[in-house]
Amino acid sequence: MAMNLQKHLAGSHIRYFNRTLSRGDDLKEAGGIPANSVKDVVDESDVVFISLSDDAALNATIDAALQGNLQGKIIVDTSTVHPNTSAAVDARIAERGGRFIAAPVFGASPVAAAGKLLWIVAGPDDAFQTISPFIEGVMGRAVIRVGEDVRKASLMKTAGNFLTAGMMELVAEAHTLVEKTGLGSEALESLIEQQYGPLTLSMSQRLTTGAYMPAPGQRPWSDVKLALKDVGHGLSCAEEAGVKLEVGEVALRHLKEADRYGDELGRGMDSSSLYGVIRTESGLPFETEVVTKRDADQEMKKP
Keyword NAD, does the record have it (predicted)? Predict the structure, then answer.
């Protein structure tokens, strides 16, 4: 996201900070300027975009941001957090004269790199007009505005994550079915491509290419631990509203088991790794033949 923004601002230089600053080396080569702290980014910028893993990380970052001069500044949070967390952050920033926009995004790492994220945006209209030129066609493919109440953006993202988890559960179950019955994943993936669209196809391909269980040392497209947090937020919001999300509960159980398996192996798992759990529950190994061969080939290449 930051790289796409820097390219868009040709001739200007964004300030950036990361807890592991070296992860911004490519951004630095593209013209970005590393900062020593969150406070420095706030002090040296009019608009600050934040992308973090969870509610605790957001709260800690806002603690640091409040040490800077927030007067007149716009803070845009693209993280996926609980709606109540967004509301609390909004109040804290407003107390210091800043404006807050909740803008969670849909799309895994490759989608972000391509500048094709879908943005869900809530916050003051004037602040949105200021940041709008940096989103569509730069860091995202489209924007869905859901008003000024920042909780609504987080709630929309939560609802969307429930849909995503539910669809991934269905796709994983279908692939397990066709493997057990001998129909085969290739035929199913062709059906998915022709009948159910690109999003469902991308989910299928995460399973058939082995991305659901990244190779040792590789990072997942979307970490299973983040999926656990996201689905958990969905179930929490549903409980508060008096709604029961049974599909979400099944997906959460499978995600927890996949996370446990990854921890046992010391490997990061993708959010689609619930596929491996569904396989084992059906009498198949967690790893597909594609994963087994890939990992064996990687082991053979070691010096």
Answer: yes
